[in-house]
Amino acid sequence: MARKINPLGFRLGTNQNHHSVWFEQPKNYCKGLQEDKRIRDCIKNFIDNRRKKSEPMKNLITRIQIEKSIKKQIHLTTVIIFMGFQELFEEKPKKRGKKEDELRHIKEFSELKVNVEKALDPNLRRNRELKVVISKIFNPFGDPNILAELLAHLLKTRIPFRKAMRRVIELSKKADIKGVKVQIAGRIDGRDIARVECLLQGRVPLHTIRAKIDFCSTRVQMRFGVLGIKIWIFSDPDRQFEK
């Protein structure tokens, strides 16, 4: 039996960083984890509810980073939301007839901040201050989370799975990556026996710790059952995808 490990956790401390950056007393550590879970669920639900059904590939969340620090006896909580194909909360230039859009974006951002404040644990810390930052992904097709969402959308629209996998690989080439691996598992095409299908383009050295590997694992609900999607991306560690 093969021993598999998450490639992100395998590279922590080398070229991967934690998504939650903070220190806490041992007795409050569980409360801190639960608070992070509530914050992430709150943000994902808020953005999913405002995503248009006609545009499922807009406003996709790739990562939510939570940083907690203390400055002048004030406990600062910084929430950084990395998004691809962002339209919500976007600061548009002032043009004639665009004032209503600017007010709507400001109102949506204020509602998001209020919802995140409700998710904070009032018993964990006092004198807390919240800061929410929206960061736009510079090259969205180089992120495995966005590619996984795209593949799930193509499968839901009943596009043949091999064609959908090749489409995802072709789009990933726009990001100037070194390799990509796409895997689908489950009752593919409604077959009675589950199987695993995989496509590889380029190099994906999973055993090399120095290699910059991005990984995403998700599920998609189909009419005949659940399909599992996994995507590995081997990128240049010196290249920055986020701006």
Automatic annotation (TrEMBL):
CDD domains: KH-II_30S_S3 (cd02412). One of its GO terms (molecular function) is structural constituent of ribosome. It holds the Pfam family Ribosomal_S3_C. The keyword Plastid applies. Gene3D superfamilies: 3.30.300.20, Ribosomal protein S3, C-terminal domain (3.30.1140.32). Residues 152-233 form the Small ribosomal subunit protein uS3 C-terminal domain. GO terms for cellular component: chloroplast; cytosolic small ribosomal subunit. InterPro entries: KH_dom-like_a/b, KH_sf_prok-type, Ribosomal_S3_C_sf, Ribosomal_uS3, Ribosomal_uS3_bac-typ, Ribosomal_uS3_C, Ribosomal_uS3_CS. The keyword Ribosomal protein applies. GO terms for biological process: translation. Its main location: plastid. Part of the 30S ribosomal subunit. Belongs to the universal ribosomal protein uS3 family. This is Small ribosomal subunit protein uS3c. It comes from Monsonia vanderietiae. The gene is rps3.
